[in-house]
Amino acid sequence: MAEVKRVAIKATNQLREVMAKHFMELGEAAKMKNKKIAWCSSVGPAELAHSLGFLVYYYENHAAILGSNRTASDYIPIANAHGYSPEICSYLTSDIGAYLKGETPLTKAYGIDKVPKPDVLLYSTNQCREVYDWMTFYAHEFKVPLLGVNTPRTQRQVREDTVKSVAAQLEQMVPELEEIAGRAFDIDRFREILVISRECSRLWEAVLETAAARPSPLTFFDACIHMGPAVVMRGREEANDYYRLLLEELKERVNQGIAAVEGERNRFYWEGMPIWGKLRGMSELFSRLKGCIAVSTYCSSWVFSGFDPKDPFQSMARAYCSIFIVQDDKAKEDYIAEKVEHFGIDGILYHDAKTCPSNTNNRYGMANRLSERLGIPHLIINGDLNDLRCFSEEQTVTNVEAFVEQIEESR
Ligand code: SF4
Question: pLDDT by residue (tens digit) across 9-32?
Fold first, then answer.
């Protein structure tokens, strides 16, 4: 098979440095009494924690690393033996399994011997209930407070009473966070963090927008790697500096016509979670077939452009209640339809992730409805984010090849 040639994204070197700095800082903080660490779900109230001086550790990011380096499958059975079903979120089971075994990939990558111990655990059920169950385990293990926001799901649009309720829940966290942090809450600092975080969203969105060019300068698989700072460092200037650099390079690639997929012929939308342990293989498969996955729901999930320093709690509540995952199918379909048109998409790929129903959207007729509405075909890929026992490489390659052939023939 001919080797797939790719022009590497140069900023990847800086990405490694930025991510290393983030983890080493957490590793150092864990050894110091005066530094406080908050564990936070990926779309949880991180900005509030930053404003009180916490360093923020994202447990889903840790789980995604376990998926990417394919150690998740070693740890999931350990959590299963501890009473956590193989049917539930494999982020949760792989992360808890790694903890029970006393291992973390942060040791090999950054010399951190164990995950940094939390002073407080934060979550928001805007994405799923699993983050609450996951953190309940650690609250018991570390004997630290568990604070969270509970939000409604399956909404056509965000209701004002929901925004008020979530804003009130955020405000109610403040006294307890102050006590844990050992410092007073400063609303002006909170406003500043929201501005920095909003800028991160703006830059990340601009990065993703470059994929609207033909040929696209990046793919979904690149975005899964480069989204790291938007996930774990939003609210910090280092993330924004990184995205300015990446954006400049991508714009230059667009100007020079440098394609992420050489000879790009077909463009796809990816709906659902990545299959972390197969990113490289899937990337090579699509490159070989001259297919570019130009846009995804997943990578766009870390865009919170609604933060408003003039109305910090309400705007934060509104932004976190407006994310794709909390919306009903009609709202999700409208969102995807708009992206399909804007990015010039030829087909939609749905990842049916066995253990993440919240981020799997093909199970209630959406795929058929959208194909009919948009006049483009779709393919459902069965797999999982971390549990590779749910993924058949052979079957996926066959199905993807047939799907691309179908699109080619319909031209
Ligand atoms: S959204 Fe899915 S993958 Fe993420 S924590 Fe919830 S169940 Fe797990």
Answer: 999 999 999 999 999 999 999 998
Q: Is residue 127 lining ligand 1, measured as CB closer than 6 Å?
A: yes
Residue 269, SS3?
A: strand
d(CA 233, CA 237): 8
pTM of the model: 0.97
Band the pLDDT of 3: cuts 50, 70, 90: low
Q: What span, in angstroms and rounded, lies between the C-alpha atoms of 101 and 115?
A: 12
Give me the DSSP letters along 322-360: SSGGGB-HHHHHHHHHHHHHHHT-SEEEEEEETT-GGG-
Q: Are 390 and 354 within 8 A, CB to CB?
A: yes
Maximum C-alpha span of the chain: 65
Q: Phi and psi of 292, rounded to 5°?
A: -115, 120
Rounded distance between C-alpha atoms, residue 124 and residue 169, angstroms: 10
Q: Please report, for residues 74, 135, 333, 368, 374, the alpha-carbon distance to residue 365 in angstroms, rounded to integers and kept in the order given.
A: 34, 32, 11, 6, 14
User: Domains of the chain: which residue ranges?
Assistant: 12-410
94, 126, 131: which to mutate for ligand 1, most atoms within 8 A of CB?
131
Assign 55 to helix, strand or coil.
strand
* Ligand 1 and 358: CB distance under 6 A: yes
Number of H helices and E strands in the chain, helices first, is 17, 8
Q: What is the DSSP letter of 56?
A: E
